[in-house]
Amino acid sequence: MYSFLEQIVADHMIRTPKVVTHDLTLRELCDLFERDDFNAYPVEEHSQVIGVVSKFDVMASFVFTRARIMPRHDDLMKLTAMDVMTPEFIYVGTETKLTRVLELIVNHRIRSMPVIEREQLAGMIARSDVLRALQRCSHGT
């Protein structure tokens, strides 16, 4: 179990994550989330990560209040990733310890986060990656 303390993101992350462009529509995002088993995608503009869009963000765009009345469905589905994404997102580097990732996941109740190195997307790390590392370390492999 103590070997987990030395584990770093680079050894457990997804190295070639799927990304979406800032202008991808909500309809296209819904299709992606239905097709792929991902909880979130980095949103890129000019090869820079400008936000993260998650299933939660998509669902939140369908919540309406008295102050925010429901638009027509077709209009809603024309919103873009940039419209619904989280622009201020938590990320880690390739050398970040998995103990720190675990802490961020638990404290912020997030499922995955981008791995940024030299201001470029290097990968994604998810709860399942951390759990897999915990399992391997607890079995001594």
Notes on the structure:
The chain has one domain: Roll (CBS-domain), CATH 3.10.580. With 141 residues, it is α+β, with helices and mostly antiparallel strands. The strands form two sheets. Strands 1-2-3 form a three-stranded mixed sheet. A two-stranded antiparallel ribbon has the order 4-5. It is built from six helices and five strands. Strand 4 and strand 5 form a beta hairpin. The model has no long low-confidence stretch (mean pLDDT 92).
Summarize the structure.
The chain has helices at residues 26-35, 55-60, 73-76, 81-84, 98-108, 127-138; strands at residues 20-21, 40-45, 48-54, 112-117, 120-126. The protein has 141 residues and is of the alpha+beta class. It has a 3-stranded mixed β-sheet with strand order 1-2-3. It has a two-stranded antiparallel ribbon with strand order 4-5.
User: What is the level 1 CATH name?
Assistant: Alpha Beta
Could you say what the CATH topology is called? CBS-domain
The domain tally reads 1
Shape verdict: elongated
Radius of gyration: 17 Å
Measure the end-to-end span. Answer: 10 Å
Query: Regarding quaternary structure, how should these chains be classified?
Result: single chain
Uncertain residue ranges:
none
CATH architecture annotation name:
Roll
Secondary structural class: alpha+beta
Number of helices: 6
Order of helices and strands: EHEEHHHHEEH
Strand content: 15-25%
Mean pLDDT: 92
Mind summarizing the main beta sheet? 3 strands, mixed
Strand line-up in the sheet with most strands: 1-2-3
CATH superfamily assignment?
Answer: CBS-domain
The number of strands is 5
